[in-house]
Amino acid sequence: MERVTIDDIRAAAERIRPHVVRTPLLAARWGDAERPLWVKPESLQPIGAFKMRGAFNAVGTVRGSTSDVVAYSSGNHAQAVAYAAAAFGLRAHIVMPRETPNIKVQATRDLGARVVLSEAGQRETVAAEVLADTGGVMIPPFDHPDVIAGQGTAGLEIAEDLPSVRTVLIPVSGGGLASGVGTAIRALCPQARIFGVEPELAGDTAESLRAGRRVDWSIEDRNRTIADGLRSQPSELTFAHLQRVLDGVITVTEDEIRSAVREYAYRGRLVAEPSGAVALAGYRQGGTGDGDTAVILSGGNIEPSTLRQILTEAAPT
Question: Which of 138, 154, 187 is the last residue of a domain?
């Protein structure tokens, strides 16, 4: 299986440069003294999540060969593909599960995409039907080299901004972000340790890496977590990358995820969706070693009512 390389990621960085924000690496003075905390706020992207990177790289490579692109996503990839398609003058058809937060469904429609809702666990099947109807090109959320390379540009930026980084914590679900960022960090900061972070209630990647093979969790089990963007499972392609680039996977509880959302809001003045906050939750567990630690805040698209509930669950510390 051909894996993405640092050269692929550098090429992606050039391709997406006109369209994607080069997010800062923020020094979080409220981190622990022995392991300085740095936050990569991908929530500052135009659609509020890192998915912009992979979408623009993948859509940019097919823009001259099709008028229609198809994607399936619980929300952030959906918005990213819709945004990229609009930028390139293409039609976007997005399949989203019915349980997707309405704020993400409406945002995707507002970007001009046609949204098709599917039942839980059926989004890929429905997307295949839409693809056959439109004759377009599929832009999967993680299972594609161009998507992985695009996501890896966030790791390229971390390496450029913090060459001394000792630990990098990355949210993991389908594995595209961790595959790409991990590849970039491995190539440019070989001294760094790299960890994926996922909810305990969707801990299939941690179990799979322990077993040395992909372990299937039911969609009903994975849907239990509040981190709705982390309910996917790695593909063969991303799992092959994760086996090579990750030092391990940290699993976090629902309470730890909610606490991280509050910490970002109260201490970092940043809005994080639960899926975007898991890397900080992993940092708070400790055990990853001392030295400069970079965490990726992968997205900030959270329902206002959910954010309000989480913020009022406990007073700021």
Answer: 138
Q: Is the per-residue pLDDT at 316 higher than 80?
A: no
Within a domain: 179? yes
Packed helices 51-62 and 76-87: angle between N→C axes, nearest 10 degrees: 40
- Based on the fold, state whether residues 80 and 31 are members of the same structural domain: no
- DSSP H helical segments within the chain, as ranges? 6-16, 51-62, 76-87, 102-110, 123-134, 145-161, 176-188, 204-211, 219-222, 236-245, 254-266, 274-285, 304-311
Q: 47: burial class by Cβ within 10 Å (0-12, 13-18, 19+)?
A: buried
Phi and psi at residue 161, in whole multiples of 5°? -85, -25
Q: Are residues 29 and 57 in the same domain?
A: no
Q: What is the pLDDT of residue 248?
A: 96
CATH number at residue 96: 3.40.50.1100
Q: Note down the domain range covering 98.
A: 51-138
pLDDT digits (tens, 9 = 90+) for 277-314: 999 999 999 989 999 999 999 999 998 999 999 999 87
Q: CA 233 to CA 246: how far, in whole Å?
A: 16
Higher pLDDT, 74 or 302: 302
pTM of the complete model beyond 0.85: yes
| Residues classed as catalytic | 51, 298
Kindly state whether residues 110 and 44 are assigned to the same domain: no
Query: Whole-angstrom Cα distance, residue 151 to residue 147?
Result: 6
Strands ordered across the beta sheet of 137-138: 114-118, 91-97, 68-72, 137-138
- Residue of 238, 164, 256, 158 whose CA lies nearest to 196: 238
DSSP tag of 32? E
In this structure, how many other beta carbons lie within 10 angstroms of the beta carbon of residue 281?
Answer: 28
DSSP character at residue 49: B
